């Protein structure tokens, strides 16, 4: 089944053929279809746009009220209802499914008109209450067939076919409702809605619907309470004809909780929320809110955009900040004098890739110290070593000494307090648990820099690339959603030689890992140099340490940076730090005095 909107869209895609079919005396002029009027005589007064975004829109310049879309043109030219026009259009378009049969359905049970009901007009009391106290217009009262019985207001719900579905009564002396029979799930107000209407207001109650109509907006309201959704099923087809449904619901908790469910079922793209200056339309009427204010509220009706859909324009401040602001590129910078453009940014994930034993853990540890020094709280999930072992390595780097004293070690551990946490599972930890603990550490302790060493120890089979990919995908979401950085150590594929720096295509596993990561490092240990050194020591030949670096850290990808430098580094034997020249001093991350002072 197709909605009117869909049928009209199909007509618009064939606007010229539709015009030729409906108005054979017309002709195409300057990109528009021109004809005398909806009666089809030759002429130029009625113009239909046949191409572009506005295709299908038409206007008769001799009678500016005559305008609309192609379905309306069809209905006017053929003198049929919109529903019949839609039926005919489907046949013309060769569309098998017929339009929704909204015009013929109603609730199956019709009730008999009870005795004693008279028109509201003939009851001074009811008429006065409606027009003077509630300020409902007499036209609306007549259109909606509002009646009176024993001094109470009679609110009949007629189906789209005019049959009486339900009758509700309202006392005029107190807010009390009763009905002719038990609650029926339908909408009140069809009698006030033209069969060609393409827009409708849905509101919470009958008096509201009458108020909306008094403002010039025909409206419907559920008969059995605003929070029951049963009416949707009964009236679903009847509502299909509306391209726009304005929801005028109370802003109280009950109203707000029902609204998303209504919108979801009626179609998010055609629903709009109206915010009124008072709690509902009848209150607006009573308070004297004029039609202009109501028109303005309708014009400003908000869409129910999914929370995930945001206009790019809303990001102006953040983008200006990225260009000009102080907080440009929040993240951890590299420990060396150059390459400051490489940043381990919040919201991103980086891979530290290397062959076994090439220093990934040492490098990730040093960068974690760098993060702590720059104020980040860090969690290390090392499945390679027992916590005491990797913390020992880290402490060596932090002190810049091969053998720090006991006091210094203890002082450094005091410094770790509130800065560093360990995920203690060694061996093969389950990926889910790692993420759970990371989430907890983030929420409970404000940790924003995470090291996972390494992917091979997260509980996946070596060749289960799909699960590895899903895990990295989840880490990527975690980093982005919580504005933190995750560094994941991964292995390089085994190759014949360890003599050259591997590229990002050498990362073990699926290529998706490097695609998903924001930054990828390839860490290479200069094994040939170590061999040369060994041979020199045997032969007694002098060996120049400065000539070649001990390691190269190559940034092979940095999605959000301009630089992808290679860092030539020397491995300082005492501290196990990577330094930028053979005679550079290792950096003391924790000064002894500073550590003691904390
Ligand atoms: N460039 C280097 N020169 C000398 N020794 C190094 C160098 N890089 C790392 N090492 C040493 O090599 C050993 C292995 O380092 P590390 O554990 O960091 O490697 P890894 O890449 O994490 O290994 P794995 O893949 O097995 O986890 C450590 O003892 C470390 O101190």
UniProtKB/TrEMBL annotation:
Q: Which residues form a coiled coil?
A: none
Q: Which InterPro entries match?
A: DNA_helicase_DnaB-like_C (IPR007694), P-loop_NTPase (IPR027417), TOPRIM_DnaG/twinkle (IPR034154), Twinkle-like (IPR027032)
Q: CDD domains, alphabetically?
A: TOPRIM_primases (cd01029)
Q: Which domain of life is it from?
A: Bacteria
Looking up PROSITE patterns in the UniProt record yields: SF4_HELICASE (PS51199)
- Cited Gene3D superfamilies: 3.40.1360.10, P-loop containing nucleotide triphosphate hydrolases (3.40.50.300)
Domain SF4 helicase, first and last residues per copy: 325-585
Put simply, this protein is called: AAA family ATPase
Q: Which organism is it from?
A: Spiribacter onubensis
């Amino acid at each position: 089944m197709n909605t009117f909107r869909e049928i009209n869209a199909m007509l618009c895609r064939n606007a010229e053929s539709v015009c030729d079919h409906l108005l054979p005396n017309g002709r195409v002029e300057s990109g528009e279809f021109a004809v005398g009027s909806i009666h089809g005589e030759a002429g130029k007064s009625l113009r239909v746009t046949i191409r572009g975004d506005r295709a299908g829109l038409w206007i008769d310049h001799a009678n500016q009220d005559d305008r609309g879309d192609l379905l309306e043109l069809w209905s006017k030219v053929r003198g049929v209802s919109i529903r019949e026009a839609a039926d005919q259009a489907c046949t013309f378009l060769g569309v098998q499914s017929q339009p929704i049969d909204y015009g013929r359905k109603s609730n199956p049970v019709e009730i008999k008109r009870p005795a004693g009901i008279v028109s509201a007009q003939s009851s001074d009391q009811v008429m006065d209450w409606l027009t003077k106290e509630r300020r409902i217009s007499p036209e609306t009262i007549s259109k909606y067939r509002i009646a009176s019985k024993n001094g109470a207001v009679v609110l009949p719900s007629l189906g789209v076919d005019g049959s009486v579905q339900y009758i509700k009564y309202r006392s005029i002396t107190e807010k009390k409702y009763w009905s002719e029979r038990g609650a029926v799930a339908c909408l009140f107000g069809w009698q006030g809605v033209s069969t060609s209407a393409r827009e409708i207001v849905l509101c919470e109650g009958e008096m509201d619907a009458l108020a909306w109509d008094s403002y010039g907006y025909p409206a419907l309201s559920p008969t059995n309470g605003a929070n029951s959704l049963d009416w949707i099923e009964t009236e679903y087809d009847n509502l299909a004809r509306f391209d726009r449904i304005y929801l005028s619901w109370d802003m109280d908790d009950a109203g707000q909780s029902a609204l998303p469910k209504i919108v979801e079922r009626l179609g998010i793209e055609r629903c709009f929320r109206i915010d009124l200056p008072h709690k509902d339309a009848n209150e607006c009427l009573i308070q004297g809110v004029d039609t202009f204010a109501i028109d303005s509220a309708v014009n400003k009706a908000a869409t129910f955009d999914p929370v995930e859909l945001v206009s790019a324009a809303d990001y102006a401040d953040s983008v200006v900040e990225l260009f000009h602001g102080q907080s440009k590129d929040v993240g951890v910078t590299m420990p060396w004098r150059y390459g400051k453009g490489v940043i381990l940014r919040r919201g991103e994930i980086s891979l530290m890739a290397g062959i076994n034993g090439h220093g990934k853990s040492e490098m990730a540890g040093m960068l974690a110290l760098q993060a702590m020094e720059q104020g980040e709280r860090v969690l290390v999930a090392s499945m390679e070593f027992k916590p005491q072992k990797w913390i020992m390595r880290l402490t060596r780097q932090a002190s810049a000494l091969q053998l720090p004293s006991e006091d210094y070690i203890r002082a450094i551990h005091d410094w770790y307090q509130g800065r560093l946490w360990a995920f203690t599972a060694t061996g093969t930890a389950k990926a889910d648990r790692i993420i759970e603990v990371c989430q907890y550490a983030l929420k409970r302790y404000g940790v924003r820099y995470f090291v996972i060493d390494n992917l091979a120890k997260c509980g996946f089979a070596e060749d289960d690339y799909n699960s590895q990919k899903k895990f990295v995908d989840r880490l990527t979401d975690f980093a982005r959603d919580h504005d933190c950085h995750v560094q994941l150590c991964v292995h390089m594929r085994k190759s014949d030689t360890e003599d050259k720096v591997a590229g990002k295509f050498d990362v073990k596993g699926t290529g998706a890992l490097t695609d998903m990561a924001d930054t990828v490092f390839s860490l290479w240990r200069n094994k040939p140099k170590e061999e040369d050194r060994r041979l020199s020591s045997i032969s007694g030949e002098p060996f120049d340490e400065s000539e070649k670096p001990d390691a190269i850290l190559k940034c092979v990808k940095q999605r959000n940076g301009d630089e992808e430098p290679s860092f030539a580094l020397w491995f300082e034997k005492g501290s196990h730090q990577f330094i930028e020249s053979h005679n550079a001093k290792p950096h003391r991350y924790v000064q002894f005095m500073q550590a003691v002072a904390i």
